[in-house]
Amino acid sequence: MQNAKTLVKQLYNEKEAAAALGISLPALYAILDEHIFNDGHSRPENVEFAPADLLMLAYWVESSAGENIIAMPRRNC
């Protein structure tokens, strides 16, 4: 467990985000292009990420790693 006094950065640049996720910069770009910038607009030249963004990206990193993910059925409420 990390030290609770460890400061979390407010913003991460692309290289820092890729390093934090344990992936290469081209792999980060591929995830961004597939899941974020897929509406016909190109990816901005310099993207910065908040800690919450890294959490979301980590999900896509794990799911693209070939792990079996089982979707839970929707509940009828």
Summarize the structure.
This protein is an all-alpha fold and 77 residues long.
Number of helices: 3
The string of secondary-structure elements, in order, is HHH
- Output the structural class: mainly alpha
How many strand elements? 0
Largest sheet: none
pLDDT averaged residue by residue: 83
**What is the radius of gyration?**
15 Å
Indicate the percent of residues in helices.
Answer: 40-55%
Catalogue the unreliable spans: none
Percent in strands = under 5%
Oligomerization: single chain
Could you characterize what this model shows?
- The protein has a domain of 51 residues.
- By secondary structure, the protein is mainly alpha-helical.
- It contains three helices and no strands.
- The model has no long low-confidence stretch (mean pLDDT 83).
- It is 43% helix and 0% strand.
- The radius of gyration is 15 Å and the shape is globular.
What descriptors fit this protein?
mainly alpha; globular; 43% helix; 77 residues
What secondary-structure arrangement, pairings included, does this model have?
Blueprint: H1 14-21, H2 25-35, H3 51-64
